[in-house]
Automatic annotation (TrEMBL):
GO terms for molecular function: 16S rRNA (guanine(966)-N(2))-methyltransferase activity; nucleic acid binding. NCBIfam families: 16S rRNA (guanine(966)-N(2))-methyltransferase RsmD (TIGR00095). Its EC number is 2.1.1.171. It comes from Aestuariibaculum sediminum. This is 16S rRNA (Guanine(966)-N(2))-methyltransferase RsmD. Gene3D superfamilies: Vaccinia Virus protein VP39 (3.40.50.150). It holds the Pfam family Cons_hypoth95. The gene is rsmD. CDD domains: AdoMet_MTases. PANTHER family: METHYLTRANSFERASE.
Length: 178
């Protein structure tokens, strides 16, 4: 993995092999950030990264100037890796070790972007539950967006608040808005 743009452009991130992750590919990540660049000023954003894994997406936001980033993952190794990497890069990332669904049921916060990258083999109802909890519990600001990364074999277009999706190889980003 590498950081595509910003102050940390070109920095490589090498995660331990034992982490249970599937990082977003550089091609897909670059495409996602090209879309976001047309709608947001990164230095004024707040971001919630669910199923954060290696923190790959969060580092990209931080490199582009985002200072309010929260990563949630239930795996201690992932959280520890994100904390260490954020410290090494001197970037402001808050980490929370929690089951994402429990976090979404209990936490109270407002963000501009919620990014969720759950396992690709998630049941359809679990993908829907992410969107349901984000909107029901009011995690997004008025013009905020939920982005769920999933495989091209999963269709999230029937979920409430679905806006559009973009395919990049075997990855798809589905966008949800009020």
């Amino acid at each position: 993995m590498r950081i595509i743009s910003g102050t940390l452009k070109g920095r490589k991130i090498i995660a331990p092999k034992k982490l249970p992750v599937r990082p977003t590919t550089d091609m897909a990540k670059e495409s996602l950030f090209n879309i976001l660049n047309n709608s947001f000023y990164f230095d004024s954003l707040s971001v919630l990264d669910l199923f954060a894994g290696t923190g790959n997406i969060s580092y990209e936001f931080a490199s582009r100037g985002t200072t309010q980033i929260t990563c949630v993952d239930q795996n201690f190794g992932c959280i520890k890796f994100i904390q260490q990497t954020a410290e090494n890069f001197n970037i402001p990332i808050q980490t929370i070790k929690s089951d994402v669904f429990k976090f979404l049921e209990k936490a109270s916060m407002k963000t501009d972007i919620v990014f969720a990258d759950p396992p690709y083999n998630f049941p359809d109802e679990d993908f829907a539950k992410i969107a349901e909890l984000v909107f029901k519990n009011d995690f997004l600001v008025e013009d905020g967006v939920l982005i769920i990364e999933h495989s091209k074999h999963t269709d999230l277009s029937k979920i409430e608040n679905f806006s559009y999706s973009k395919n990049y190889g075997s990855s798809v980003f589905s966008f949800f808005e009020y």
